Model the fold of this input.
Amino acid sequence: MQTDTTRLPIGVFDSGVGGLTVLRALRQHLPAESFLYLGDTARLPYGTKSPQSVMRYALQCTRQLVERGVKMLVVACNTASAVALDALAQAWPEVPVVGVVRPGARAGCAATRSGRIAVIATEGTVRGGAYQRAIQELCPEAHIVAKACPLFVALAEEGWTSGPVAEAVAREYLEPLFCVPGGPGAAQAPDTLVLGCTHFPLLAGTVARVVGPDVAVIDSAQTAAAEVADLLARTGLAAPKGSPAPTRFLATDDPGRFARVGGLFLGRTLAPDDVAVVDL
Ligand code: DGL
Done:
């Protein structure tokens, strides 16, 4: 009997739990879809690794999802999207692949009025220049500043998303970029800040307080979900309305930690029994 492809889950992958912010947006936008999420927690963070390692990990993770049967791949990790998207599309030509960098860039370009856009991300994403290129392509006159904010990853994973420590770290990273005491003049300050890392939406409140009300803070998860919805419609892969299968979770390390920290990102309780460990 032939499989009805539309009923297959969408495979979502990240270096760990951060991509659950993208999964959350996907589930809100696409209530009829089922999802299979893989977090490569054993090898997190990707943001400090070489592009070669990230590429290899991304291929292994997506192979795991493709072999389990998914109709689409969402690379819910900015670092992996920045480095490996083309390689993944080549490796799995039969499965559409969506990343989070282009949607984030598009949302940033749509939000800016002055053309001055700041991007914060991991070291790897900033170093590779993928956001800078994607923004420049969509908005050639844009003036872009990109900054690595690696401590935000650790703060989000510890649940320290607000309070004096998070605020002090945010000030240290962001004050030099924005029009705040010690920063550049108002005319040069960006009016848009793209959160180019899956962990950063958890700190959005603190970040917004530091950069002030005149700066649009962009979370690419929402735009990525809209792009997936659009692609499902265009490829005829959208699931029929009805009750979707429950989301399944895979991790490459301790399910207890995945469940505890992942719950913060997903916005609902996860039990260790909900998470299966896989060896890539
Ligand atoms: N998921 C990664 C990203 O969005 C952040 C965590 C990591 O460095 O692996 O870039």
Q: What stands out?
A: Residues 102-220 form a domain with the Rossmann fold fold (CATH 3.40.50.1860). Residues 14-16, 18, 44-47, 77-79, 122, 125, 153, 197-199 surround D-glutamic acid (CB under 6 Å).
